[in-house]
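Final report, Chapter 2: Outcomes

The project's central promise was a pipeline that accepts a single protein chain and returns its three-dimensional structure in a standardized token representation, suitable for archiving and comparison. That pipeline is now operational. To close this chapter, we reproduce one record exactly as it appears in the project archive, with the input sequence first and the structure output second.
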Amino acid sequence: AGREDCERCIREGAERSDDSKQPGRSECLGGLTVFSAPIKAADKTVGILSGGWVLMEDPDFDKICQTAKSVGEDANLLSSAMAEVRIISDDEASRAAVYIRDFAGILSEMAKKSAEVQRVNAAAAKAAEHRSDFLANVSHEMRTPLNAILGMTEMALHKDMSQDAKEYVHQIRSSGRHLLTIINDILDYSNIDSGEMPIV
């Protein structure tokens, strides 16, 4: 029961802080004062910074005994521990509240930047994936007609033809093989980029 009450207290304080732009102040079990402020990224609460758990007035030992009973703790032990807690002034409490607010602001900026970095990284990874897919598809599509051209040049070289015609066909075959090597290299780079290149 105690944990749920603490979480509710902290949440309520953070919600009050969110509305007023000041740290939320709430009273925890046993009369302790807690300061809470939300940690935000892109107007979304991603966490809560809370601190304090201080006394701002003399402890109410009847309330402490009730709290101890509700959470299954020894009332005498909790009362003696509370008696040792220093009571702080309103001025100290205000400074603590401002510190919580400012620190939550710093954490919010860090969360915002982290979310932006993740968004940029995701966009870059997606662009790299699209580029890799494009290169792989283009390479495959170019190899099919190029292999047909190379096959036809091989067949043409087995036919009777003039020396000039043979030179032309040899030139076509040589250029086709060179182009096929380039296309295979592009496909290899694409596979390396996508992490799919097997090592032999």
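Archive annotation: The helical segments are 2-20, 61-71, 75-83, 90-157, 163-193.
This record, like all others produced under the grant, will remain available to the consortium after the project formally closes.
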